[in-house]
TrEMBL record:
Cofactor: Zn(2+)
Protein's name in the database: Site-2 protease family protein
PANTHER family: MEMBRANE-ASSOCIATED ZINC METALLOPROTEASE M50B (PTHR39188), STAGE IV SPORULATION PROTEIN FB (PTHR39188:SF3)
Transmembrane segments: 6-27, 180-198, 204-222, 258-278, 290-310, 330-348, 355-376, 391-413
UniProtKB keywords: Hydrolase, Membrane, Metalloprotease, Protease, Transmembrane, Transmembrane helix, Zinc
InterPro entries the record matches: START-like_dom_sf
Similarity comment: Belongs to the peptidase M50B family.
Gene Ontology biological process terms from the UniProt entry: proteolysis
Coiled-coil residue spans: none
A Gene Ontology molecular function term of the record: peptidase activity
C-alpha cells in the first residue's frame, strides 16, 4: 500500500470515528411517520404503554401506574446485567386519549440517570382517510451521529413492524440488516471497498479478502466470549470500511467480564496464528508455494491486526483490558506506557521505519483522545475484579501479545 493510500485510509477512518462517536451535535430531534391502514383506537391500544395491547412487540412485559400524575413503572423484555428484565420509571404528560402522549424516562435499572436527562419521546396518531398516520418523535442530546442514526432506523423499523402487526395480528421479529445474508453482503462490500487501497489487481483483492476475514475471526472471538460469560444472545455486525463489531445480549456485569470479552478478540486468533504458520511451512515444503504464500499472508495479517487492537487506546481491546486490571490511575499509566513501548519496539524489530512508528503513535494518541469517555455509564458500578482474576488476565494479555508478536516477526522475515 502506498504512503498516500495509507494516509488517506487512516485519515478517513479518524474522521469517521470522530463524526460517528464524538462530534458534539447538541439537542437533536428525530421524527418519522407512516400511514397505517388500521383504526386509530387499535393502534393506540398498541402504542400507549398502559393499554391492553402494549406488549404487541414483546418489548413491554408490563406497565404499572405509580401515582395519579403520570408516573409509571415499565418492565421491559431486555435483559439487565443480572439477567432479569430491565425496569424503567417514566413520566407521561400531554396525554390526549387516543391521539397523543409524551414520555420522559426518569431512571432505569441499566443506565445512569444522567443518560436520560435530555431524552423525550412523543407519539401522535391522526386519522387520514380510512387509515391512521402515526408519528414518532424523539429528542435527545447527542455526541456523534452513530446513536442518532441508530434511533432513526429503530423508529422506522418499529413503524414497519406495527404496520405488519396491524394487518396480521402477529409481530415479526428481526430484520434485514442483521440477517446473516445481509451481513455476508456487508463483509463482501467491505472487501471491495478496501480493494483499491491494496491495488486493483488479484493480489490486492486477495489482501482485502484476507483482512476482511481477519476482522470476522476477531469478532467471532468476542462473540464466543459473550456466550461463555452468560450472554444468551450475541451478534456481529459488519460496518463497511470501519470493520465489524460484536454485540452482547445484556450489559456487562463485572470488570472481569469486560476484560475477558475484550481480550478474546485477539485471544481467539492467537490459537489460529501458530496453526497458520505451521500450515504455511508444510505447504511450502510440499511445493504448494501459492497456498504457502496465502497462508503466510493470512497469519501475518491476523497477527498484525490483532496486536494493533492491543494498543492501550480507550476503545481498543488493549485499553479496555488494562482499565479493568489496573483501575488505579498510576498503575494504568505505567501499564499503558509499557505496553505501548513494547508495541513500538516490536514494530521497529519487524522493520517498520522510525517515522512510521512515530506517526502510528500519534494516530493512536488521537484515537484515544477522540474516544475517551465515549462509553455509556451504567446505573451501578461493575463488580470489582478479584486479585487472582487480575493476574490471570494480565498473564493472558502477555501470552496473546507474545503469540501475535512472534507472528508479526515471522511474517516480516518471510517478506525479506
Amino acid at each position: 500500500m502506498s504512503v498516500i493510500a495509507t494516509v488517506t485510509l487512516v485519515a478517513g477512518n479518524l474522521g469517521l470515528i470522530f463524526l460517528l462517536m464524538t462530534a458534539p451535535l447538541g439537542l437533536r430531534t428525530v421524527s418519522v411517520n407512516r400511514v397505517i391502514k388500521a383504526e386509530r383506537n387499535r393502534l393506540w391500544q398498541a402504542l400507549w404503554p398502559l393499554a391492553s395491547d402494549a406488549g404487541w412487540s414483546g418489548e413491554i412485559l408490563s406497565t404499572e401506574p405509580l401515582d395519579g400524575e403520570g408516573m409509571a413503572l415499565i418492565k421491559l423484555s431486555w435483559e439487565g446485567r443480572d439477567g432479569r428484565p430491565i425496569e424503567r420509571k417514566a413520566r407521561f404528560d400531554d396525554v390526549v386519549e387516543g391521539s397523543r402522549f409524551s414520555m420522559r424516562v426518569i431512571e432505569d435499572t441499566a443506565l445512569d440517570p444522567s443518560f436520560w436527562t435530555d431524552y423525550r419521546e412523543t407519539t401522535e396518531l391522526a386519522p387520514e382517510g380510512g387509515a391512521t398516520r402515526v408519528t414518532l418523535t424523539q429528542t435527545d442530546r447527542y455526541r456523534g451521529v452513530a446513536f442518532l442514526i441508530f434511533r432513526y432506523f429503530a423508529m422506522r423499523r418499529e413503524l414497519a413492524k406495527l404496520q405488519v402487526w396491524a394487518r396480521t395480528g402477529k409481530y415479526r421479529k428481526g430484520g434485514w440488516f442483521e440477517h446473516p445474508v445481509s451481513q455476508i453482503g456487508f463483509a463482501v462490500l467491505s472487501a471491495f471497498i478496501l480493494w483499491p487501497f491494496f491495488g486493483l489487481n488479484p493480489g490486492g483483492l486477495a489482501l482485502a479478502a484476507i483482512l476482511t476475514s481477519v476482522v470476522a475471526l476477531h469478532e467471532l472471538g468476542h462473540m464466543a466470549a459473550f456466550r461463555l460469560t452468560g450472554h444468551r444472545r450475541a451478534r456481529m455486525i459488519f460496518i463497511p470500511l470501519l470493520g465489524g463489531i460484536a454485540i452482547g445480549g445484556r450489559p456487562y456485569d463485572s470488570r472481569f467480564e469486560v476484560a475477558f470479552v475484550a481480550l478474546m478478540g485477539a485471544g481467539f486468533s492467537a490459537f489460529l496464528v501458530p496453526v497458520l504458520i505451521a500450515a504455511s511451512g508444510f505447504a511450502g515444503s510440499a511445493g504448494h508455494h501459492l497456498a504457502a504464500a496465502l497462508l503466510a499472508t493470512l497469519a501475518g495479517c491476523a497477527a498484525l491486526f490483532n496486536i494493533a487492537n492491543l494498543v492501550p487506546v480507550w476503545k481498543f481491546d488493549g485499553g479496555q483490558v488494562l482499565r479493568q486490571i489496573c483501575p488505579e490511575p498510576l498503575a494504568l499509566a505505567l501499564a499503558s506506557f509499557l505496553l505501548l513501548s513494547a508495541l513500538l519496539a516490536l514494530g521497529w524489530r519487524a522493520g517498520f521505519s522510525p517515522s512510521f512508528l512515530l506517526v502510528a503513535g500519534a494516530v493512536f494518541s488521537m484515537l484515544s483522545l477522540l474516544t475517551v469517555g465515549s462509553g455509556v455509564k451504567p446505573r451501578h458500578e461493575l463488580k470489582p475484579i478479584r486479585a487472582f482474576d487480575r493476574l490471570a488476565m494480565a498473564g493472558a494479555l502477555l501470552a496473546v501479545f507474545s503469540i501475535h508478536g512472534y507472528g508479526v516477526l515471522w511474517a516480516a522475515a518471510q517478506l525479506m
